[in-house]
Amino acid sequence: MNCNSILTRATRAHLPELLIMIKEFCAIDEHDYDEQRLRRSLPALLDGDDYGVVWLLGEPVDGYAVVTWGYSLESGGVEALIDEIYVRSREAGLGSKVLTAILGDCRARGCKIVFLETEARNARVRRFYERAGFRVDDSIWMSLSLDNGNEQNSDTGMRTRNG
After folding, report:
1. What's the gap between Cα 146 and its chain centre?
2. To 10 degrees, what angle do helices 123-131 and 94-108 make?
3. Confidence (pTM)
4. In the Cβ-directed half-sphere of 30, how many Cα atoms lie within 13 Å?
């Protein structure tokens, strides 16, 4: 498999196929699957590169990846976040090829650093990323949901509604 067939840019035409794979990924990774949220948010990534890119992986398609952009003074410019990578057939070595291709694309776009996050319980995937050169940072991610006035306390996971 050559590099050109590893990553294919996803478009709106791929939305039904993406939703199936995202649902599979959410089930495996124990995340909530919210199809309405995905249908609202994916077009921004499928219609252009302003916020990031969605890749279809392999030929025939065997997964997907979502990479988004940020900007940081600390990093000295554009940052990439590998938001999700899902490969159905892990034995074929596709994951390593995909990661290499994604990092090459990020370099070509001028990204200064690439971030990703893994679930604390997923030591296997952390070893995979460590073999590719990723290291655990001292930083701790914190979050606050701004969606619909709902705020989630990242320490307790409790949701509150502002009136």
Report:
1. 20
2. 60
3. 0.85
4. 5
